[in-house]
Every structure is written in C-alpha cells, then in structure tokens.
C-alpha cells in the first residue's frame, strides 16, 4: 500500500484524526466529508479533499497532499490543483491547503514566489517527526505518527496506542476499528512479517479470538461499507455530478441513489 493511499484510508474512515492533526476540534469531522477528487479532462487526482457537508456553511474546504518524497516541482503542481479545482467546480468556499511530510528534509521550495504563498495562514505544513509531546499524547496524532516511526520503535508505540484506544474509547466498534487501523499500519511497515506474527507482536491473539470482537467486526464491516457508499454519493452530488453518473460510479440504480440523497437531506 502506498503511503498516500494509507493516509487517505485513515482520513476517510477516521476524519477526526485529520482535525486532530491540524490542531482543530475533532468534532468538526461531523460536518465534513473526506473524498478523493479527480479533475475533469486532466490527469490530476489530489490525495484528498475534506469538504463541508453543508455547502452553505462557509466553512473552508481542505485540500490535502501527502508528500513522502522530495520533488522540486511539487508546489507548482499543488497550487495548480488548487486553482484548477476552484475553476472547474466554481467553489466559493474558503480554502485551506494541508501538506503532510514525514520530515522537513523531504520538502523542496523552488522559489521565493512559492515561499510567499506558503507563508499564508491558508497553508499548513506538517512535519510528522517534529510534532510536540502534547500532540503525541492525542490518540489520533499518535496513530498517524506511527507511519514514520522506525521499525524498532513502531511495535512498542503500536502496543501503547492499543492500550490508549481501550482506555479512551468506550464504543466497542470504534475500539475495534482503530485497533484494526493500528494493525494495518504495522503490516504496512513490516511487510516481511506474517499476519500471525504481527498479531502476536501486538498482543492481539487473545483479543481477536473473543466472540465479542468477532461479532463486533462482522457488524462493523457491514455498516462501514454502507456508510462509505452513502458518503461517497453525497460528496459526488455536492460536486455537481448527475444522478445517473453517480449511479454508475456507485453501481446502484438511479432510484437507489435518489433515495439515499432524499434521506440525507431529511
């Protein structure tokens, strides 16, 4: 799994983590939809857009890019994506750009012109290895930072985060989902290890064999698939796609898509 894809999965399924990362109220996640946007007629796709569910709320939309490799042309491409999005979708919402780097050494700033734009309050650059202790104490930020931990430290931190998940979350399904996410990150970081080895390293054998966990996972998978499809349909509709286009993308009938949109507006 590519790093940007992993971040997209995290933010799409756990949008509260994104708002924790940019030091905003995690409850804002309830007012946003996280999507990946492809621009019409050009080969551009941004890592993610976090758009308000209420287009009339005047809250900003967030354009998010994950950059784990040095690229002299990155900021030209990023700003091109931003203004192309504003042009194609005629968005009048305020905008915020968020760039996530593993470390400051990955960043390449090509000119003073770009530096002037990056100094705006509308641009946030995050260097995961520089997050302070207060940020690290937040569960969501700790999970994101797990991606850039060394292999030697990753398992120790993952076990700590699993304990925090059990302590801080009372909802069983939410606990299971975050524990699965932590496990997925460790699998990504340790591809040479088998799933059984990773379960043992994280102390998950006993937990994942319980009936409570298994029942919760089965129910959560079904609900998660339905919620993800509903959110995707709403986001596509807000971006101006027709009902027939959305139906084709979601592999549903026009009537099913219309029913979902009708229910979302009530």
Structure report:
This protein is of the alpha/beta class. 55% of the residues lie in helices and 10% in strands. The chain is built from 13 helices and 5 strands. It has a 5-stranded mixed sheet with strand order 1-2-3-4-5. Helix 1 (3-13) packs across helix 2, helix 11 (211-238) runs antiparallel to helix 12 and helix 11 (211-238) packs across helix 13 (254-264). It is globular and about 50 Å long. Residues 209-222 have low confidence and may be disordered.
**Low-confidence region ranges:** 209-222
Rounded to the nearest angstrom, the distance between the terminal CA atoms is 38 Å
Fraction of residues in helix? 55-70%
- Number of strand segments: 5
Alpha carbon gyration radius: 20 Å
Strand order of the largest sheet: 1-2-3-4-5
Structural class: alpha/beta
- Please outline the major beta sheet: 5 strands, mixed
H/E series: HHEEEHEHEHHHHHHHHH
Question: How big a fraction of the residues is strand?
Answer: 5-15%
The dominant shape is: globular
Mean pLDDT: 81
Counting H and I runs of at least 4 residues, what is the number of helices?
13
Oligomer state equals: single chain
């Amino acid at each position: 799994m590519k790093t940007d894809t992993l971040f997209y999965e995290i933010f799409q399924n756990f949008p509260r983590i994104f708002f924790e990362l940019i030091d905003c109220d995690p409850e804002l996640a309830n007012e946003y939809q996280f999507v990946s946007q492809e621009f019409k007629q050009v080969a551009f796709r941004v890592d993610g857009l976090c758009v308000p569910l209420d287009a009339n709320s005047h809250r900003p939309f967030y354009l998010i890019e994950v950059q784990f490799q040095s690229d002299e042309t990155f900021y030209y491409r990023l700003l091109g994506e931003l203004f192309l999005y504003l042009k194609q979708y005629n968005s009048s919402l305020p905008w915020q750009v968020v760039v996530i780097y593993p470390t400051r050494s990955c960043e390449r700033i090509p000119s003073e012109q770009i530096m002037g734009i990056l100094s705006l309050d509308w641009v946030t650059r995050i260097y995961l290895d520089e997050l302070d202790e207060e940020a690290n104490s937040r569960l969501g930020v700790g999970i994101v930072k797990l991606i850039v931990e060394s292999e030697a430290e990753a398992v120790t931190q993952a076990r700590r985060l699993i304990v925090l998940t059990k302590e801080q979350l009372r909802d069983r399904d939410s606990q299971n989902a975050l524990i699965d996410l932590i496990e997925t990150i460790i699998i990504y970081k340790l591809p040479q290890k088998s799933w059984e080895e990773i379960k043992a390293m994280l102390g998950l054998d006993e937990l994942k064999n319980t009936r409570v966990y298994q029942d919760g996972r089965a129910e959560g998978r079904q609900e998660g698939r339905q919620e993800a499809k509903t959110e995707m349909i709403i986001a596509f509709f807000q971006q101006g796609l027709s009902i027939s286009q959305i139906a084709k993308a979601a592999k549903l009938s026009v009537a099913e898509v219309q029913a979902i949109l009708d229910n979302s507006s009530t």
